[in-house]
């Protein structure tokens, strides 16, 4: 069975190449996965846009309606970082549904990854920080509501703190949020996760991996997890434009192996999301995101 990969061509909302958000990383990631022999028949699934009712499990109903109608107030669009037109709205609905679909595939096959997702700054009331809907929170709450899972773990290793996920899931005792991130990075006002680990600027492979290796067993001792959502943001990389940390490609690869290996050896289904990554060299960035899929395929 090849690694199950969820994708959609409309994950790319077609921003200008010089936009601060490197939208072209989505088609370039798919190209990288094809080159690596991972995007093959039997591996790929495509989501339908998420229904409004599902999005409203995690988000305020008026905000969901505003995004779907492309009538988001300008103040919120500024906090998100781009205007919500038809392509961006569709993209947000698809990426969120993609994480729900990847989670279902993970429950069935043990592991699956979405070629988007990890929009962890979207809070219950609104989007922020390049995030329109919080795909992980929507998927977690959808699976819990259906009774498909009883205990959900979020492992968020994007370099930015997972404030939106923490905000949405803070009153859900069946979900546990863990964020390890750069201390001095966005968001300035962090919303506490169940467990937050803040790293100093310039943290490199060894210190990063040692810290993570200490924490993973603690997470597993808490309770039996029915699924783990893994935000594998690559903005921890030394060459990331926004990251402030200093991981190398090998460090990223070791991180993915550590996280995925840890949970798969215990039989916990894992749903991987690409999370953040910012670089003007978008091909190099896509190759960094592809590492998640290369490592995950060894556990499929
Ligand atoms: Zn990030």
From TrEMBL:
CDD domains: HDAC_classIV
Keywords for this protein: Hydrolase
InterPro entries: HDAC_classIV (IPR044150), HDACs (IPR000286), His_deacetylse_dom (IPR023801), His_deacetylse_dom_sf (IPR037138), Ureohydrolase_dom_sf (IPR023696)
Pfam family, one: Hist_deacetyl
Keyword Hydrolase tagged: yes
Similarity comment: family membership: Belongs to the histone deacetylase family.
Protein name: Histone deacetylase
């Amino acid at each position: 069975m090849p690694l199950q990969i969820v994708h959609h061509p409309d994950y790319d909302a077609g921003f200008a190449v010089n936009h601060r958000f490197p939208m072209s990383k989505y088609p370039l990631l798919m190209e990288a996965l094809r080159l690596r022999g991972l995007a093959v028949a039997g591996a790929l699934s495509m989501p339908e846009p998420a229904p409004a009712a599902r999005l409203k499990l995690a988000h305020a109903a008026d905000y969901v309606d505003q995004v779907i109608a492309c009538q988001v107030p300008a103040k919120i669009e500024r906090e998100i970082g781009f205007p919500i037109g038809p392509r961006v709205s569709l993209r947000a609905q698809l990426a969120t549904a993609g994480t729900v679909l990847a989670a279902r595939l993970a429950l069935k096959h043990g592991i699956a990854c979405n070629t988007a997702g990890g929009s962890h700054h979207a809070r219950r009331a609104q989007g922020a920080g390049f995030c329109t809907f919080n795909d992980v929170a929507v998927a977690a709450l959808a699976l819990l509501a259906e009774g498909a899972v009883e205990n959900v773990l979020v492992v968020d290793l994007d370099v930015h703190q997972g404030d939106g996920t923490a905000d949405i899931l803070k009153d859900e005792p069946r979900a546990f949020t863990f964020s390890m991130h750069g201390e001095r990075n966005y968001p300035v006002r962090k919303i506490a996760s169940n467990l937050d680990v803040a790293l100093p600027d310039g943290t490199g492979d060894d210190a990063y991996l040692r810290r993570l290796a200490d924490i993973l067993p603690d997470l597993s001792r808490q309770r039996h997890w029915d699924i783990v959502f893994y935000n594998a943001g690559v903005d921890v990389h030394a060459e990331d434009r926004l990251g402030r940390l200093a991981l190398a490609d090998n460090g990223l690869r070791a991180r993915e192996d550590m996280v995925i290996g840890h949970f798969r050896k215990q039989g916990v289904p894992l749903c991987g999301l690409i999370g953040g990554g910012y670089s003007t060299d978008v091909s190099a960035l896509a190759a960094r995101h592809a590492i998640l899929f290369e490592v995950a395929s060894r556990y499929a």
